[in-house]
Design a protein that fits this description.
This protein has about 200 residues and is mainly β. Helices cover about 0% and strands about 25% of the residues. Strands 2, 4, 6, 8, 9 and 11 form a 6-stranded antiparallel beta sheet that branches. The chain has a 5-stranded antiparallel beta sheet with strand order 1-3-10-5-7, with no helix packed on it.
Length: about 200
């Protein structure tokens, strides 16, 4: 089940205007766990968590029921990349709109598993607590993790003058509470957590 849907999120900074609530503080971290895995940042945002242009921007998802060091047995993590701001931020000669940059030149994307008592479940499970990507992708998938005791997941862009743009972070795990009911999908009230279909509509 995608346990991130029932968690909370925070990030280093926020930018932009929320389409649904213009008076709010912008493209907040909560958009990254709302079940809507699409979006384009064009002066406004409706489904993305976006930082300002800063050094080492990050977002962190606190998983539900992860207190007291108990955590979750995590199988995989998906980070859905968003489109960076179109109206004012320019990156070199390209400029204009484009996907959040993750390249050898601009800098990597890093996913970190966090928890006080994490441990690989088996020899086949990954013993890595961190994974770094240096290529452009729509979805950054970290599979076959099999790590227990995970209480939160952190995504960051190391480097100067970078802008984090995330449409969704999904953390698939065995929930420690047998009575846990996953959050309903934002797109369809008949679907749950990890069964959410990707919404491909663009927000202009």
């Amino acid at each position: 089940v995608n346990v991130a849907r029932g968690g909370t999120a925070r990030m280093s900074s926020t930018d932009g205007v929320d389409l649904k609530s213009p008076a709010t503080s912008g493209c907040t971290a909560a958009h990254a766990i709302d079940g809507k895995a699409s979006g384009i940042y064009h002066k406004t945002c409706a489904r993305m968590a976006i930082s300002t242009v800063e050094a080492n921007p990050w977002i962190e998802v606190q998983l539900p029921g992860g207190g007291g060091g108990r955590g979750h047995r995590v199988w995989s993590v998906e980070v859905w990349a968003g489109m960076r701001r179109c109206d004012s931020v320019k990156y070199g000669a390209k400029g204009g709109c484009g996907q959040m940059e993750v390249t050898k030149e601009s800098g990597p994307l890093r996913i970190t598993l966090q928890g006080d008592s994490m441990a690989a479940v088996s020899e086949e499970g990954s013993e890595q607590r961190q994974r770094t990507y240096k290529d452009q992708r729509l979805v950054y998938s970290w599979d076959d993790i099999n790590m227990e005791g995970v209480t939160s997941v952190r995504v960051e862009l190391p480097g100067a003058s970078r802008q984090l743009a995330i449409t969704e972070i999904k953390v698939f795990a065995v929930h420690p509470d047998p009575d846990y009911v996953p959050e309903r999908c934002a797109q369809d009230l008949d679907l749950y957590g990890d069964d959410c279909a990707t919404d491909l509509r663009m927000d202009w």
